[in-house]
Amino acid sequence: MTTEAIAKSMVRARATFARRPQAATHPDDPATARWEHGTRVVTRHPEGMRFATDMPTTLGGSGDQVTPGWLLRAALASCLATRIAMSAAEEGVALASLEVFATSTSDARGFLGMAEHAGQRVRAAPRCIQLDVRIGASGVPPARLRALVEESSACSPVSDALGAGVSLALNVEVAPS
């Protein structure tokens, strides 16, 4: 899609949602993850796209697929990059380059259900996540590009979900054996 088409789409969507805010709320496409064997899981999109994850060999996996944690970082990076590209298009900024790097630090003890010496359970979530953005646009002042990135970050659904601590409901159905 061209920069102009993206900008027009955003203007149309804003106008529609300003008139009818209820039209902005919708169920998101579900992701269905099915265990295959060992630690390999295949996740499917309703449109048929699929991808496999597995754990590294140090945790009993084959190590030949990305891990679910990497997909979290990929979601953060790609969502922010998408939102920046959309904002740039809307503001008429012709991007020359854009890369978002998502890194994190985790403690594998949390994934394994282990506790600290004092008995407190180690959190399974990453201890910290960092997003680094490298952006370039000819003739655009650095301050404007920084502001574009910061404003886009506030509108990135994946970043916002993690930062806001979205509620998570867990429902369990036990299948008959």
Topology overview:
Blueprint: H1 3-19, E1 32-37, E2 40-44, E3 50-53, H2 68-91, E4 97-105, H3 108-111, E5 128-136, H4 142-154, H5 157-164
Antiparallel strand pairs: 1-2, 2-3, 4-5
Helix pairs in contact: 1-2, 2-4
What can you tell me about this protein's structure?
The protein has 177 residues and is of the alpha+beta class. It folds into 2 domains: 31-66, no CATH class; 67-164, K homology (KH) domain (GMP Synthetase, Chain A, domain 3, 2-Layer Sandwich), CATH 3.30.300. 37% of the residues lie in helices and 19% in strands. The chain has a 3-stranded antiparallel sheet with strand order 1-2-3, with no helix packed on it. It has a two-stranded antiparallel ribbon with strand order 4-5. A hairpin with a 2-residue loop joins β1 and β2 (40-44). α1 crosses α2 and α2 crosses α4. The longest helix has 24 residues, at 68-91. The mean pLDDT is 91.
Number of contiguous helices = 5
Q: Superfamily at the CATH H level of the largest domain?
A: K homology (KH) domain
The amount of helix comes to: 25-40%
Number of strands: 5
Assembly context of the chains: single chain
The topology string of helices and strands comes to HEEEHEHEHH
**Radius of gyration in whole Å, from Cα?**
20 Å
| Main sheet summary | 3 strands, antiparallel
Q: What's the average pLDDT?
A: 91
Domain count: 2
Q: What proportion strand?
A: 15-25%
Report low-confidence residues grouped into runs of 5 or more: none
Query: What is the level-2 CATH architecture name of the largest domain?
Result: 2-Layer Sandwich
CATH fold call of the largest domain = GMP Synthetase, Chain A, domain 3
